[in-house]
Amino acid sequence: MEYPAWAPHYAEIAREFGFPFDREERSAGRLRALLPPAALARPLERVSERLGSRDVIVVGAAPGSGPPPLWRLPLTATQPAVIAADAATVLCLDAGIVPSVVTTDLDGPVPPQVTANRRGSLVVVHAHGDNTGAIAEWVPEFGGELVGSWAGPPERGLIDVGGFTDGDRAVFLAEATGARSILLWGFDFTTVEESDARARERKRAKLVWADRLIRLLVREGRTPIALWQRDGSVEPYPPGSSDASTR
């Protein structure tokens, strides 16, 4: 999704959650300063080289989901590319899957993401107002290929193709870089495992937005999106719809 079309949606998110844009800018500035020069060059093109014209599996870390059962997929000449959304990197590595791309705002277990990066994953590090400290701590630890993103207009080496949480941002990234199809594994927008009531409600509100944004992309994007259920079935997104192309 082009930034002018995406910006009003993020403005609504920022109003709902109370995200001051000046903090977003400070975090983006810190990320830009810490990324090596190679990470600032051709960021979207480099992601497209990994995902473009390929079937893409976006792996989330919904409770109890486990790693994607790639052995169930039919063998094709070009195997699907895997994007791990933040904490799902652990699930992938434990199953021997090195993701093509990892999307992260550094609030999940970061050492596995560093490991995946050193094994060949391109890591897209997202800057927002609450993770400036994590950026300073972790970005220098990555030894492989990086791309930076933030919640503002694409500029000076940072991208913004849309999306809010790590999972739906991965879906927007796959669509923006020309994926042939997108298959979601480990996505659950209703189950929240948080002991603190305030954190639970905030997480639930974020999941509502993640679902809403993927539905938006189904309507306005070009790439078919489907949900891969734990029983092995695949259905167009959103669940219960008969044909993704008609929504």
Biggest beta sheet attributes: 9 strands, mixed
Low-confidence regions: 243-247
Average pLDDT = 94
Count of helical regions: 9
Order of strands, widest sheet: 6-5-4-3-2-1-7-8-9
Structure, explained:
This protein is of the alpha/beta class and 247 residues long. The protein has one domain (3-67, 78-238). Helices cover 40% and strands 16% of the residues. The chain has helices at 3-17, 21-34, 37-40, 43-51, 88-94, 110-118, 132-138, 166-176, 197-220, and strands spanning 55-59, 81-85, 101-104, 122-127, 146-150, 158-159, 181-185, 225-228, 234-236. A nine-stranded mixed sheet has the order 6-5-4-3-2-1-7-8-9. Helix 7 (132-138) links the parallel strand 4 and strand 5. The relative contact order is 0.17. Mean pLDDT is 94; it is low at 243-247.
